[in-house]
Specification:
By secondary structure, the chain is an all-alpha fold. The chain is built from 15 helices and no strands. Helix content is 78%, strand content 0%.
Length: 331
């Protein structure tokens, strides 16, 4: 499957490097962390730096954003390829590129610039967990460098998951023409890649939810209005809702509508045959059996219990991290 919209600059950089993307972002996190050592030596803060886990958390968070962004983009592309044979349109490649285009829409740069501006303006003024360091203004320069991936790649993630994926799922489930006969015969089997993508995206969002509160939440009494309420918790809530709830709604609606149509068609066909002759009785039995099979078709792509469990785990993560952050702050 080829198309202009499939090109994604971050994915292209990683492919050209020849390094597996988890390792690529892991090395990026390590280099950003090590970059702090010259700053800390120059300001006589090396001991503080080594004993402060927050710098490692920031580096890991930037890497996590990159891993999730590339993972989602590649897996969604694979999932689309797996259902192209179900599309009733002759131009399925254009449909595939259109769906991927939601993820790669350059609108994400608006989100990126928002996070860059907010981090640059507010971070030095309000978020100084390094305020007790020697020469904190120079340390602020390093903090702004280390948080660049969090803002740039994190901004892409904050668009791709809540907006891009949601629009793509909505388009797929509500607008893409599907061959009903082919879908009924295979049902959810061609959508296995989507099931895996949605499940892993939920787990990724649950892990993601731990970081914003630990980095930007409860860093000081002056940050409560700006960061502890608006940025970490609102952003995390948007990601969790989009990753855990919306995909299941769209796919459930998609399969439920197909199932309803199939049952309606079988009901109309059943009315054509009376029970007065043996031939019609046999046909009615076959239709009733087919209708029974259709009635047992599932409409939830991912088990609802799994969704609830992941949502509970994500909320518990946020609460535990915030409690630990508060304890560290007041200790």
């Amino acid at each position: 499957m080829l198309g202009v919209l499939l090109e994604f600059w971050l994915d292209e950089i990683i492919r050209k490097s020849g390094i597996p993307y988890p390792l690529f972002f892991g090395l990026m996190a390590l280099l950003l962390y090590l970059l702090g050592i010259p700053f800390m030596i120059a300001t006589n803060n090396l001991q503080f730096f080594i004993s402060d886990p927050m710098w490692g958390v920031v580096a890991i968070f930037g890497a996590l954003n990159g891993i999730l962004v590339v993972f989602v983009f590649r897996k969604f592309s694979d999932a689309i390829s797996g259902i192209e044979h179900l599309m009733s349109s002759d131009d399925d490649h254009k449909i595939s590129d259109r769906l991927l285009g939601y993820l790669n829409n350059k609108v994400y740069w608006i989100v990126v610039f928002f996070w860059l501006a907010l981090n640059f303006i507010e971070s030095p003024r309000l978020m100084r967990w390094w305020w007790f360091y020697n020469n904190p203004h120079l340390i602020t320069i390093y903090e702004l460098i280390e948080t660049l991936p969090c803002c740039i790649i994190g901004g892409i993630f904050m668009y791709m998951i809540p907006v891009g994926l949601t629009l793509a799922y909505r388009d797929l489930c509500m607008k893409v023409p599907i061959r009903k006969d082919a879908l009924v015969s295979e049902w959810m089997n061609p959508f296995e890649d989507f099931r895996n993508l949605i499940t892993l995206t939920m787990f990724g969002a649950a892990i993601y939810a731990v970081f914003p509160p630990s980095i930007w939440g409860s860093t000081g009494p002056t940050s409560i209005i700006y960061w502890s309420v608006f940025v970490p918790y609102t952003g995390t809530a948007i990601v969790l809702i989009a990753a855990i709830l919306l995909p299941h709604y769209y796919f459930h609606r998609f399969f439920a509508n197909i199932k309803k149509t199939v049952l309606y068609d079988l009901g109309k066909e059943l009315q054509k045959y009376s029970m007065k002759d043996d031939v019609n009785i046999n046909k009615r039995i076959l239709i009733l059996l087919e209708k029974g099979e259709a009635d047992r078709l599932k409409t939830w792509l991912v088990d609802v219990k799994t969704i609830g469990e992941i949502l509970v785990v994500a909320v518990m993560h946020v609460l535990v991290v915030e409690a630990l952050t508060a304890l560290i702050h007041f200790s």
